[in-house]
# Entry
Amino acid sequence: MQLYARRRAVNYLALGIATGAAGFGLFWLVAILWTLLYNGLSAVNLDLVAKMTPPPGSAGGLLNAIFGSIVLTIGATIVGTPIGMMAGTYLAEYGKTNVLSRIIRFINDILLSAPSIVVGLFVYEIMVAPMGHFSAWAGVVALAIIALPVVVRTTEDMLNLVPNGLREAASALGAPMSKVIMLVSYRAARNGIITGILLAIARVSGETAPLLFTALNNQFWSTDMNAPMASLPVTIFQFALSPYEDWQQLAWGGALLITFTILILNIIARALAGLGSGGR
Amino acid sequence: MFFAIMVLVLLGGVIFALIVGAWPVLRDIGPAFVITEVWNPVTEKFGALAPIYGTLVTSVIAMLFGVPISFGIAMFITELCPRWLKRPLGIAIELLAGIPSIIYGIWGLFVLAPFLQRTIQPFLIDTLGNLPLIGNLFAGPPYGIGILTAGIILGVMVLPFITSITRDVFETVPPMLKESAYGLGATTWEVTWKVVLPYTRVGVIGGIMLGLGRALGETMAVTFVIGNAHRISSSILAPGTTISATIANEFTEAVGDLYTSSLICLGLILFVITFIILAFAKLMLLRLQNQAGR
# Structure
């Protein structure tokens, strides 16, 4: 009986700890979001999105950083998505299980969690150093490299979910492989692929490290892709570490903005994915 | 359709470019680079020991902190959680992964660091700091920022990754196995510890390694809270530096070929370490997959 009591006690203790751990995980999410709201909301006003980044000591907003972030993210998506989709399609439709695609899958998974700062160094070496100056293009390439593995992975996974019967039916009607993929597989997997792209955008728009020495930063309004360009994360980095109160305030505002954008993207992506699997 | 090969070329390109960039260091300093502590841009003396040490120690702290909690959360989700809570909880934990690392950084700097400085660190110094042997780990003034803080932030950041993998592999356990254990009268804890965990061991280790890979390479959050001091101190409360933080802080200001090249060489070291760990993790997970397929 004593053994039984001890086992029960151990069990309750362990379950209690597990529940505590789950609560603890949630606590961090809530704590971070709450701090962001608390510190960031006071910085959110019209100026935040309407004015340029100020010199220390005067009022201003984050307009050029927001614009830069949007440009860089869109650029990276345009460059990275088609390549990623092609590669994912190859893996799912043509390569399947041959040695090459196994290796690619393996490498892709590693790139998926490779340190982003290394990607920054790589782009610095191949683009910034030869060109002799920092540029928005380099930032776009760095972000595209980070988005690529995400898109490859989700495209492949989603195409694999398409039932083979559909493909066989299309082939039996005499459709060539390319038509089968374009008209049947892509359509069936559309929601999933869009989810992947959204996740990639979410991932990319919060990246800071690779931008530090590719797109650098810019205090002023710039649409020149050959010049350094501001972006939200880098601006937050610079402002948060500065000793000036009003810069820190702006950093909180920017942090709030970017976190909620990304969380919303994530939630939309998940809702879409849920929709896709629920319909089938 | 052979864009797929680009993925391969990319990896080759990354390694090649880093080696080219790091060449001056490899040539001039050689293996001594990894074992020297001095980091002095003015006299152009560079040694990578301090960043490497910082990277390893922060990652170890992150693992000590993150792994048991992830395990607890995974256990809660798979074994305890009422069905309606499963999905929201899973999503909430995954949202933690969605928060950009810079947010963790700014939060760590302005919220966590002062909190640790006021409460936990003085406590650690007063109690553990006086003990022999491990006392050195907790010596010195409470800075707030430092290796411990960076480790904790990293621990929180890897939580979602380890949790989601642990949860997934826990769910691959055939219900029959669990049911037979329950049938023999085992408690939930015993089922998890003695049936589920041994069955999924390989996968769990794979997940931990994946988290470790993340922790090693994490840049921004660490840069905020680590303190950027190029030295090795025995206390985990002292500021230090990591490979990625060093690169992020100094790269744009680096003048001179040797300085730049030293930083790139650090990047190369980081990439090689994470590559090995991630590859190992993938192999572990693949092995489990094959097992499940049988």
User: Anything to note?
Assistant: The longest helix of chain B spans residues 257-293. The longest strand of chain B covers residues 39-40.
